[in-house]
Design a protein that fits this description.
The structure is a single chain. By secondary structure, the chain is of the alpha/beta class. The chain has three domains: 119 residues, Beta-Lactamase (2-Layer Sandwich), CATH 3.30.450.20; 34 residues; 113 residues, STAS domain (Transcription Regulator spoIIAA, 2-Layer Sandwich). It is built from nine helices and ten strands.
């Protein structure tokens, strides 16, 4: 005689089923189970909330009862592929939300197997990634804007470089580089590059580097400018330093510059007069 206090197998199964359902209902992500006819035979409360329907309205129903035909076709094609292959799948798909908006869902589906390892249905987990996609799109848009801004900044930097190192062809074979304002190592490097470019482009035999508008340079900048002077000589061009202030002269002396190898003039006027008096 069975002990009335010992639960039967059916009671145990029923309690286990209730416990499982209660556990699934705690999940924030929708969960569902489908049979081979694409009918929902199990789901959690999050799935009901996703479709905006009570549990009794979903049991035994299927996608065509709640979503547009084009979405049904996509869902069922994926289901049938799982039924045929027995392989899990994942996909992103749009779905009409009860509030009228379209949400992007990330769905992971897994085959369910019965006797003899035969596929008898599938289960799936759904994550609403609409907000994630919106943020990713916003980041992508911001990155594109930053790339465009970087391009503008780069273009403007190039223009500023041109303005920072102006070149004037005084007459045939003579190029003037009038420098104004402070010069750091970067600008000094650009001065040297632009001077050599101007020599090559114009075929100049004389370059006048007018630094009368430069208040002060450090030893690193002075060294860079002198490298430009020496490099111009390799191109067959004489570089003349004009307007050297006492402070800059001190810096050049500290570098041990051999002024016998460098043409200098006190002013731009003297430099131009000298070139006119002694044409090349």
């Amino acid at each position: 005689m069975a002990d009335k206090n010992v639960p039967s197998d059916e009671q145990l199964l029923s309690e286990a089923g209730l416990l499982l359902q209660a556990s699934l209902d705690q999940l924030l992500d929708p969960f569902f189970v489908k049979n081979l006819r694409h009918e929902w035979i199990g789901f959690n409360q999050a799935f009901c909330a996703l479709l905006g329907q009570p549990a009794e309205a979903l049991t035994g129903k299927s996608d065509p009862d709640f979503v547009p035909p084009e979405q049904v076709a996509a869902f069922w094609a994926d289901d049938d592929a799982i039924f045929a292959s027995g392989q899990a799948s994942q996909s992103e798909e749009p779905i009409d939300h009860p509030d009228g908006s379209v949400h992007t869902l990330w769905t992971r589906k897994f085959p369910l197997r019965g006797r003899n390892d035969r596929v008898i249905g599938l289960c799936g987990f759904i994550t609403d990634i609409s907000e994630l996609r919106r943020r990713q799109d916003a980041v992508a848009q911001l990155e594109q804007q930053l790339r465009e801004q970087a391009g503008v900044i780069s273009s403007q930097a190039g223009l500023l470089d041109e303005l920072a190192v102006p070149t004037i062809e005084v007459w045939d074979g003579v190029v003037l580089l009038p420098l104004i304002g402070s010069i750091d190592s970067r600008r000094a490097q650009r001065v040297m590059e632009r001077m050599l470019e101007a020599i090559t482009e114009s075929g100049a035999h004389h370059v006048i580097l007018d630094i009368s508008g430069v208040p002060l340079v450090d030893t690193a900048v002075a060294a860079a400018l002198l490298q430009g002077v020496q490099a111009s000589r390799l191109l067959g061009c004489v570089c003349m330093l004009v307007g050297i202030s006492p402070e800059i002269a001190q810096t050049l002396v500290q570098l041990g510059v051999d002024f016998s190898q460098i043409a200098t003039r006190a002013s731009l006027k003297q430099a131009l007069q000298g070139l006119l008096a002694k044409p090349v």
